[in-house]
Amino acid sequence: MAISAKQVKELREKTGAGMMDCKKALTETDGDMAKAVDWLREKGKAKAEKKANRVAAEGLTRVATNGNKAVIYEVNSETDFVAKNEQFLSLLDTMKDAFLTNDVVTVEDALVLETPQGTINDLLVDATATIGEKITLRRLAVVTKTDEQQFGTYMHNGGAISALVVMEGATDEIAKNMAMQVASMRPTYVSQADVPAEVVEHETEVQKQIMAADPKLEGKPEKVLEGILKGKVSKHFQDECLMDQEYFLEPKKKVSAFLKEHKCSVVEFIRYQAGEGLEKREDDFAAEVAAQMAAAK
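Structure tokens predicted for Elongation factor Ts (297 residues):
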């Protein structure tokens, strides 16, 4: 099948591999992006730097608590200028109050919530009309805790990133620091025990292929190979698991060791980064001006 330049660009941004390598990977996998990423990794040509989750849209996130209830949410706009707009910021505050004082589970629930100015959906429509950009509520999560548990929250750069953690046995300071850890180190799971079986199986197959191509491992006993495979899979998930990460305030100590030392634990966490995974609109200013001049004739 024909491989487009857009596909090559997307794969290159995700992996950091060379253009020709990306094109070959896509050709070998019939354009399947996920298989192409695996193909590059198996061939050892994908760079270690992760670019799959780079921010590709604008907006802000928010996190807030009220007693045993917390909410974290993301509102998107088309440009970063809107993030400084007073109406946009006011809308975020109105949403916060509505989410914390009403029962809400999904975005659909949130849109029909009533506020003194109308429903959340009405406010989004009004903001879109007034500001001149599409404003949307992309996602939200409402979390509850027990009286014995603690919330930790952190917003980075005015809401570019927000993090929420639920902890047991922690001080307010430790809970906040854990939220900062989540925001800055972007883990996916609390521990390796939380990684879904299908994700582990997929990574195991990838590592098997990498090992099969390694001449240094030829002729080694099966048990030795099994141990090496297990170690490689575990190492892959270390950066993605909060407990295995280095604690940002004490880099020589893992998060798990720090928490054990202070006799506390993380129950769950949520991290939102504005625009994460969304494709940014590409404006052609010259074409826009030309179109306006043509329309004015």
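The chain has a mean pLDDT of 86.
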